[in-house]
Design brief:
The complex is a heterodimer of chains A (about 375) and B (about 130). Chain A has 13 helices and 2 strands, in the order βααααααβααααααα. With about 375 residues, chain A is mainly α. Chain A folds into 2 domains: about 220 residues, Transmembrane di-heme cytochromes, Chain C (Fumarate Reductase Cytochrome B subunit), CATH 1.20.950.20; about 130 residues, no CATH class. Chain A has a two-stranded antiparallel ribbon. In chain A, α1 runs antiparallel to α2, α2 packs across α4 and α9 runs antiparallel to α10. Chain A is elongated. Chain B is mainly alpha-helical. Chain B has one domain: Cytochrome c-like domain (Cytochrome Bc1 Complex, Chain D, domain 2), CATH 1.10.760.10. In chain B, a hairpin with a 6-residue loop joins β1 and β2. In chain B, α2 packs antiparallel against α6. The chains are: A mainly alpha (about 375), B mainly alpha (about 130). At the A-B interface, loops of A face α5 of B.
């Protein structure tokens, strides 16, 4: 285990403390955390997932590196007990914390906490993805409500991690000030001033290059869809389930507006709408009785209650059972998802109102309304 | 030789659009009702003629959703959905089904004029769609 250095700063020369893989790990992890935070909106789910998978890979690597990474990187070089953390913190309070070349006891605990939180965040994220979106390696493991629970936990853990990151930053700042050394630049360059007898870390550049290549190649494979996409065939990162279809419904209900998939409203809404087809939002549809019957059967059979998609489940959840809404655009879930869209966008000639779902949702015709398939027109 | 001629005739007939058969069929049914000749020019002037819609009090015409240029795509005034061009030359999917034609005449005439169109008016519209 690392021992505190003598306070005597005389005759110190810079040596490498952080090898390249440790530094690459650190800053890529920072990048992942920031990216994941900024892409928590469903519109960017594919980017969010890349950040998440990369974070998972980095953590696995770091655990491995904690065994074989050599001086300062090995867990055994910063395996501090609670007592040592306490002593160290007391030193900070007295403004005279001992100096450690590697991680100090408090810092090491932040690292273990961050790694643990990272693992939990990845797990709950995958569970949420598999349950709520029915996507990813765990697709189908959980149902929608369980997926939602995992998702809520995922968010809570992310806030906790933000808290630990904040504490870690304060710690870095305080120690940098108290020891009058720049710990941030040490994590960039790898070098810290050390007494003549201190062990220096090898650069491990081969491992570093291998990491960089793997990360870049992974990114290229993950995002390659964007490279081959065209304006007419935009890239959709997630393909939803193939939903039930009906030719008569598409023909009759898809001429004036998008054929809104039955999964977007509960059965009671569709029943009422078809019974009132002669005054359909001010339009008379003039449909024949047997046409009405066939379309109604199709709509009711695949209504929101069947939970064919995440949107179906959430829309149905959001509408009080006592209410029969005729508009998808009045469902509380729809309103919540679109509340940040400004009037200027709704009035944009390319959108022309809320019912023109296809102006923003690439998969509106299919009815799946997947994440990362929506974009605002410019 | 005879067979050869028949084959040739069939090939010559192929490019004729499906819309032609459907439109002829519908126009024929109008003719027996009123029996007048149809004119694309009359259809054209009615296409852009404005009517006051009772419900909304707004000035509307067929061009409100379809635009005045039959070769261009329009968009539904209430929903924003794109509506393909109406000229038979610009849109192969147009006027292939007599029942569909009748359905939309009923809906759109009521919507625009507040009444059903007469056989004469509908026949004129169809000639207009073919003429552009």
């Amino acid at each position: 285990m690392a021992q505190p250095q003598a306070q005597n700063n005389n005759r110190q020369t810079p040596i490498r403390i952080w090898n390249i893989p440790v530094r690459l790990f650190h800053w890529t992890l920072v990048g992942c955390f920031i990216t994941a935070w900024l892409t928590r909106d469903n519109r960017y789910l594919d980017i969010h997932l890349f950040a998440g998978y990369l974070m998972a890979g980095l953590i696995v690597f770091r655990i491995l590196w904690g065994v074989i990474g050599g001086p300062y990187a090995s867990f055994r070089d910063f395996a501090f007990g609670w007592h040592e953390v306490w002593l160290y913190l007391k030193g900070v309070l007295n403004r005279r914390p001992p100096r450690f070349l590697g991680h100090n006891p408090a810092g090491s605990w932040a690292i273990y906490l961050l790694l643990t939180l990272g693992v939990l965040i990845v797990i709950t994220g995958l569970l949420g993805l598999g349950g709520e979106e029915q996507q990813g390696p765990l697709a189908g493991w959980l149902n929608y409500p369980q997926g939602k629970l995992a998702q809520d936990l995922h968010e809570l853990l992310a806030w906790l991690m933000l808290g630990v990151v904040g504490t870690h930053l304060i710690g870095v700042l305080v120690e940098s000030l108290l020891h009058k050394e720049n710990l941030v630049s040490a994590m960039l360059t790898g070098y810290k001033p050390a007494p003549a007898n201190a062990v220096s870390a090898a650069s491990q550049w081969k491992t570093g290059i291998a990491m960089a290549i793997i990360i870049l190649a992974g990114g290229l494979i993950w995002f390659q869809g964007y490279l081959t996409a065209t304006a007419n065939q935009p890239y959709r990162p997630f393909i939803g389930p193939e939903l039930p279809d009906n030719a008569l419904w598409r023909e009759e209900c898809g001429a004036c507006h998008l054929a809104f998939h039955p999964s977007l409203l509960p059965a009671r809404s569709w029943r009422t709408m078809m019974e009132e087809q002669a005054s359909h939002f001010g339009e008379d549809l003039f449909l024949e009785p047997d046409t009405v019957a066939e379309i109604k059967t199709f709509l009711v059979k695949n209504a929101a209650e069947q939970e064919l998609t995440e949107a179906a489940w959430k829309i149905n959840q959001s509408i009080p059972k006592s209410k029969t809404l005729l508009r998808i655009t009045e469902a509380p879930y729809w309103l919540k998802k679109h509340r940040d869209i400004s009037d200027a966008i709704w009035q944009n000639p390319k959108v022309n109102g809320k019912v023109n779902c296809a102006a923003c949702h690439l998969d509106a015709e299919m009815g799946t309304f997947e994440d990362a398939a929506m974009r605002l027109p410019d | 030789m005879k067979i050869f001629t028949v084959v040739l005739l069939c090939i010559a007939a192929l490019p004729a659009q499906a819309s032609e058969t459907a439109i002829t069929q519908v126009q024929d049914s109008y003719r027996t009702e009123e029996g007048s000749a149809f004119a694309a020019t009359r259809g054209k002037s009615m296409w852009t003629q404005s009517f006051i819609q009772k419900k909304s009090g707004k000035q509307v015409s067929c061009a409100t959703c379809h635009t005045a240029d039959l070769k261009r795509a329009g968009s539904h005034i209430r929903t924003g959905k794109t509506i393909g061009p109406m000229a038979t030359t610009a849109n192969e999917e147009r006027f292939n089904d007599p029942a569909k034609i009748e359905k939309w005449f009923l809906r759109n005439c009521k919507w625009t004029l507040g009444r059903e169109c007469t056989a004469q008016e509908k026949g004129d519209f169809l000639s207009y769609f073919q003429s552009e």
